[in-house]
Amino acid sequence: MNSAPAPGALVVERPGALALVEDLGRPGLAHLGVATSGALDRGALALANRLVGNPDGAAGLELVAGGFLARFRGTHWFAIAGAWGEVRLDGRRIAPYTAARAADGAVLEIGLAERGIRFVLAVRGGLDEPAVLGARAYDTLARFGPPPVEAGRVLPIGAEPEASVPVLDREAAYPPPAGAVTLALLPGPRADWLGEGATTTLYEAEWRMSASADRVGARLEGPELARRPGELPSEATVAGSMQLPPSGRPTILLADRPVTGGYPVVAIVAPESLDLLAQVRPGQAVRFRHG
């Protein structure tokens, strides 16, 4: 657990549905048209990093749905947070939210997610991919940053940080909810665009996460919300902005979000609910409460 350089790499043999290098993103560049990007479940990334003694924002892997297989080059500490599913190191099952040490050549396998949808893998030293605009984060809309991970990719691991691996064997961990997820909702800057009865419907209805949800936006299926006709000039957005297009079915903009494109932002998912939202599976129920 001493601080020392740890040259090595993670050699990806099977990336699963989608594997992205992500850190905490690029805040403060919205005036240049650059989204924040970064891990959708920011709390999971920070926790996984703390488990191995990294700074909260060290770059790790965001793995959608699991199905991941990789081999360590060198001896390294790692931890997995976020979604829950079976994780094995050289065939031995690893408990969630636990720091584990992989020997040189060890094989890490992450099964399909059983709760939640996004695993976060942190390796002590962080993934030492080239930074773009100050971050090791891939923007799926603008398509810049470390590219999506494919089979055969060798991900370099950085030098070990000064902090040691915490003595605590295991962090208290709770799996993402399997049933309906309740998110705190704040009024948006264009809440007056909601039509008669729409606010009541928004809070009383049970919504479902669409299968087309991604890092740009989480589209919800449910009743049609009445709204004022027309469009607005494009406006900047924050993570959690709920747009209401003419269809009347809301979309919640996430880390790789664009500007509004003319649709009103009628509400905003509160920051404390964004990590919960990041783990909602397609078809899972979503409800809202006043934040």
From TrEMBL:
This is 5-oxoprolinase/urea amidolyase family protein. Coiled coil: none annotated. NCBIfam families: urea_amlyse_rel (TIGR00724). SMART domains: AHS2. Residues 31-290 form the Carboxyltransferase domain. Keywords: ATP-binding, Hydrolase, Lyase, Nucleotide-binding. InterPro entries: CT_A_B (IPR003778), Cyclophilin-like_dom_sf (IPR029000), PxpC (IPR052708). Signal peptide: none annotated. It comes from the Bacteria. Gene3D superfamilies: Cyclophilin-like. It holds the Pfam family CT_A_B. It comes from Agromyces agglutinans. SUPFAM superfamilies: Cyclophilin-like.
